[in-house]
Amino acid sequence: MLDDVYADVRARMDKTIEATKSDFSAIRTGRATPALLDRVSAEAYGSPMPINQLATISVPQPRLLVIQPFDKGNITLIEKAIQTSDLGINPRNDGKSIFLDIPPLTEERRTELVKQMKKVGEEMKVAIRSIRRDARDEVDLLEEEKEISEDDQKRGHDEIQKLHDEYIKKIEELMRKKESDIMEF
User: Fold this and answer.
1) CA-to-CA distance for 127 and 139, rounded, in angstroms?
2) What are the pLDDT tens digits along the chain (185 aa)?
3) Burial of 134 (C-beta count, 10 Å sphere; 0-12/13-18/19+)
4) Helices (H), the chain
């Protein structure tokens, strides 16, 4: 019974870690990475499509992304989607490929990005705490319904707290790494 609770807690906390990684990948550093375009969609074939489904994205240099559309007819659609996105990068196109020069970040912009990243990190920590609270409530309910003993309830709370602490550390490590990536250049 408690094993099911632990498995559920782990699964939910793993999803939170994945969401954290995904959100962090969308926060720009001074380095080129295809993840910058993960949230940019272009209107193609009658519906919005992620750029990575319309083109190959490569990183030939640390500050350059090259986007090569599978269908050359989509090049202007992709270019327009990038221009209207919140990336703040102007694409260049040579008729076959789109080039994104990633400008170095100013100190002020780095500070803004660190604040944004910390806000996301704190939201994810709140999500982990919420999962812990739900799991503790579930363990309490099992004890109330006499499906587990008081000792099992105490052990359950302790195990849930250990999981909570482990996942909070993972988020803090992701935050430290992202902050160092942002401040690096």
Assistant:
1) 18
2) 889 999 999 999 999 999 999 888 877 777 788 888 888 899 888 899 999 899 999 999 988 999 999 998 899 999 999 998 877 788 999 989 999 988 888 888 889 889 999 999 999 999 999 999 999 999 999 999 999 999 999 999 999 999 999 999 999 999 999 999 888 75
3) middle
4) 2-25, 75-84, 107-144, 150-184
